[in-house]
Design brief:
CATH class of the domain at 259-408: Mainly Alpha
Distance between the termini: 36 Å
Strand content: 5-15%
Shape: globular
CATH architecture of the domain at 259-408: Up-down Bundle
CATH superfamily of the domain at 259-408: Butyryl-CoA Dehydrogenase, subunit A, domain 3
Structural class: alpha+beta
Radius of gyration: 22 Å
Length: about 400
Amino acid sequence: MPISFEPTENTRLAREHFRKIAQEQMRPVSRKYDEQEHDLPREWVDWYWKNGRGAAPRVDGPADGMVQVCVQAEELCWGDAGLYLRTPSAALGGAAVAAAGTPEQKERFLASFRSDGHPVWGAMAITEPSAGSDAAAIQTTATADGDEYVLNGTKIFCTAGEGASQVEGGFVVVWATLDKSAGRAGIKSFVVPAGTPGMKLVGCEKKLGIRASDTATLVFEDCRVPKENLLGSAEVKKRDAGAKGGKSSTKGFKGAMATFDATRPIVAAMAVGVGQAALDYVVEALAAEGVTVRYDAPPEQLTAVERDLMRMEAELQAARLLTWRAAAMMNRGQANNLEASMAKAKAGLAVTEITQKAVELLGPPGYSCRHLVEKWMRDAKINDIYEGTQQINQLIVARRILDYPSSMLR
């Protein structure tokens, strides 16, 4: 079966459409909300409220789908990654519902707009003060009580957590354990609508980059949600010491983790967008000084700057193609756990190197806050951390290639 790396005509049109939005709506306020970290980016949010329903071209067929979502993420993050993350949408919380929810739950929680026409926010609450990359170490508990579950615990670094927990129509998908003794098998996810009593917004982080994004700490104190808000099965199969290998059922945990197979390509696309912004800027700035790349020159005649620019372009395109492959596999209904982690790992590494090199090549102007290059370098680093760190994604890749369980390769 032939493989094409060319996007469809509809996706190409979408790319032009989102680049125009990024250029006209995001770039003009990019620096403002980098400096005003915890302010709601009113210009961007208001524009989206008025234009959001028509902000995306129609997806014509299965060849588009997830690839177009990644193209949208890339182009809008070329505009501003923090503002992209602050865009009212179901986001990561929505991806969890889409991956593990019932048809009824999807209909109930995945409406992009409230009845009054305003968009909604969604968020995912996984990370805890004592549980970061090891999601199985989650301490937040969910206790069955009649027709409800009662949640207790603290979640940190919740992207879009402020909007999702406070604005009507929003929701937070909270990972909690029904039974700590069951290990991974006890981990489940629960949809907590905005404004639910017992869910408290403690504050938002001050960050190195993506400062327009609200990265929240949420505390759950006797927070009650209906049992129908559980994503997936409530069944917990404890470890059976007499069974072969002493394994326990982790179907629920794996179902929750499958969320990342959908979201890691999007995060990779975000990284590509930031890297493209930095590369475009440095190429334009150097061209203004008469420095261009001679693609037809023999390697031994290339300058150090030309070699750097060629490497930046190659790394960025490699990350982009890996991202599109992972996305295209989702469109075809194929398992993409390996490819999603490959794309995320490559893009996170590439964007940190590209943005740092961009600052280096521009010298003092690149380091100055008069330009956005230093901001893109700060925005870039998070792509190597969230949605699974570089190290975690490399572990996943190694496990899938070698067919090793997590217990054999850490």
